[in-house]
Amino acid sequence: MANQIEVPELTGFSALRFLWRQLTSMKTALVLLLLLGVASVPGSLIPQRSQNPMAVREYFSNNATLAQWMDRLSLFDVYGSPWFSAIYILLFISLIGCVLPRSFEHFKAARALPPLTPKNLDRMEFHSRFAGRGDELAQGKVYLKKHRFRIREFEGAISAEKGFLRESGNLFFHLALILILIGVSLGALFGMKGEAIVNVGERFSNTPTTYDSLTFGKLFSDGSLTPFSLQIDNFEAKYDLVTNAPQDYTLTVTATDKPGDTPVKRIIKVNSPLSFGSTNVYLQANGYSPVVTVRDKKGAIVLQGPIPFLPQDGNLTSIGAIKVPDSTPQLGFVSSFLPTAARDAIKGGISSFPEALDPKLLFSVWQGDLGLDRGIPQSVYRIDTSLMKQIGLDSLKVGETFTFTEGSITFDGFVPWVNLQVVRDPGKNYALFGAIVAILGLLASLFTRRRRIWIRANSDGSIEVAGLAKNAAPGLEREITEIVEYLQKERR
Amino acid sequence: MTHSSWAYLSNYLIYSSMAVYTLAFFAHAYETAWAVRAPESQTPEGNLLTKTLDYTRTEKVARIATAFMILGFVLLFAGVIARGVSAGRVPWGNMYEFSITGALAFCGAYLAALRKYDLRWLGLLVSIAVLLTLGTAITVLYRPSAPLVPALKSTWLVIHVSAAIISGGVFLLANTIAAAYLYLDSMQAKGERKAWAKRLPSLEVLDQLSYRLVAFVFPLWTFAVVAGAIWAEHAWGRYWGWDPKETWAFITWVAYAAYLHARVTVGWRGRKAAWLCLFAGSTFLFNYVYVNVWGTGKHTYSGL
Ligand code: HEM
């Protein structure tokens, strides 16, 4: 066929170049941006493992086949999924490919002079012609200089331009987006996040084994953990007496930056973490650990100490498991701790206030096999009683002891525990800096008007003033009128 | 005064402002209606089909309507302040408080825009929207005044939430104008504007206005999201966690960025742009209503 459209042969280098052009076109970038928005929707409607693992488990138990399919599509880990990552990595590349060349061009153009005055000024958006007196060009120059236009004079005409900041701001905004993405990636690759429940009075040192849960970025190594340690001295919670809502939490610790340093007293609050370089320690949650002593039939101590219980409601009604694997047969106490004991007709024993005003320990005693050796991970807050039998039931106040056939349990008291979250994010300052530059760039770009203004003295003595605004920026008409008035003003 | 008497005063002020907004609504409605029925004798050249509207006789009513809008704003403002005093903090702790402050911001955006543009006609829609918001707030969302939970105790609450609420007010104003654009556009497509709509600005003006409003607050919304991230970093140990609230704030941001791009770089105008504007605004509303009420996550401060 003669009139065939010429299709470039897509081999090797030219194919790559074609792909690169497509990828870095603004249309692609916009589509990717919108796609990123759309792709983030499912994660806000379907529970995510990273935020709400319980709800995900519920999904699996309600409809296992569907949940498995959803899991294959990473619908429970949307924001870490291959397809989500693919979109933002492509956007990242597209932005770089599209913004960097533009930046070079722009900063080259920034040094250039405004273009020459065109022949037909009356074709411009705004145009005015009036009879001159002779000093208009000089006066025009004064005016334009005063208003910080960049000026080019040529053969009886002035061309002036202003508002370069618009493009500069715009480019800085887009470059800053790249910086934010770099900051986010650095955090994901070199960051770490861990949580640990620590009783008041105990010590926390920043080593992998002290954590209850710990996740590392892909390129983080154990050795990079900052070697600080904390002695948990005191935890104070204040509650509203009417609504029971928490008002204030204060955690007092003695911090040692690294082994050998002098310890310093520090305070951690909900909105003010403790920092060790780029590692921050946050106060995340709190609860109670009842302190108990369990003795066997002969009176020998088989278990002693505080055991963290898990809060179930705003009044810190807590459940927990006291497991005694070292006695024969093994013992287990399925327990609840009520900081301020009360009775509810349906739920039974509950707490009516989060502070420990009238603490009580409720439990049933079980004897048999705790099932700890079966290799299936167990919750520390629950006991699998399928191989056990119940041999007792009681509730104790502080200091009281309950004796049963196999021994006794004493409720010695309680200490608060706190959940510390330790986060290291080496990329966050880049992201913050990027965000600040992005906002400044946006302001510069959205509130700067780019426009060109020409003044020409014609050979017939008439003066022409004309203007052109990029992107139909408003206010140019007024500006032109102002210049015309300025030029026509009587001067002594 | 005790805390509860401040709370009582706040409720009283908010009921009063609702009464005043009702008056403003009727004044605006009356103004529009009266201008249309301008007698033919006053406009000798006008024919029956193209009634020329006579604003001289409605000017007084219109001024009264605007005065009511301002008075309502002042009462609402005082009500919001009194609510804050009663709780001993900024009045942004639950959804009732977000709603009354949001209504205040919306009304404030209207009054601020009124100084610069001839937007009086929009008072009818604004007064209705404010009435509906306040009505829902005080009947469905109302919660007794109480102190903040520790996570909300931060200077960033003031910075982040005020930026978000102001952006929201202006986004919704832009949405109202975009909706008016679409309505008038389809009315004009069928022929001439109906008499009552004649005094509304031309389609071009509406189109420009909703764009300007969005371009004006987009940086503020960006700032609100960034301030939220900074606060999240202080409170929760991560600046971005794809919590539903954060996700939808991001979606709103992306949607408005797409809107700005569509206008500035692709040259969208008119209906397409107005629909995109409405879409972006609805992601904001969705975030406010759905995520606050039914959503899960860390941002569940609605108190419902
Ligand atoms: C390859 C990618 C992109 C290119 C080539 C690009 C290009 C542009 C251009 C040419 C403008 C108009 C500047 C002007 O004339 O004033 C602009 C504005 C803008 N862009 Fe982008 N952009 C890209 C990606 C993005 C992304 C990812 C965002 C993030 C949300 C974004 C947000 C904005 C905003 C908010 C404006 C301001 C609109 C205005 O000036 O009214 N852009 N962009």
UniProtKB/TrEMBL annotation, chain A:
The keyword Transmembrane helix applies. It is found in: Membrane. One of its GO terms (cellular component) is membrane. It is a multi-pass membrane protein. This is Unannotated protein. Signal peptide: none annotated. The chain crosses the membrane at residues 28-46, 83-101, 171-192, 430-448. PANTHER family: CYTOCHROME C BIOGENESIS PROTEIN CCS1, CHLOROPLASTIC. GO terms for biological process: cytochrome complex assembly. Keywords: Cytochrome c-type biogenesis, Membrane, Transmembrane, Transmembrane helix. Residues 26-480 form the ResB-like domain. The keyword Manganese does not apply. Its main location: membrane.
From TrEMBL, chain B:
This is Unannotated protein. It is found in: Membrane. The chain crosses the membrane at residues 12-30, 61-82, 94-114, 121-142, 154-184, 209-232, 247-266, 273-291. GO terms for cellular component: plasma membrane. Keywords: Cytochrome c-type biogenesis, Membrane, Transmembrane, Transmembrane helix. The lineage of its organism: unclassified sequences, metagenomes, ecological metagenomes. It holds the Pfam family Cytochrom_C_asm. It is a multi-pass membrane protein. One of its GO terms (biological process) is cytochrome complex assembly. Residues 92-298 form the Cytochrome c assembly protein domain. GO terms for molecular function: heme binding.
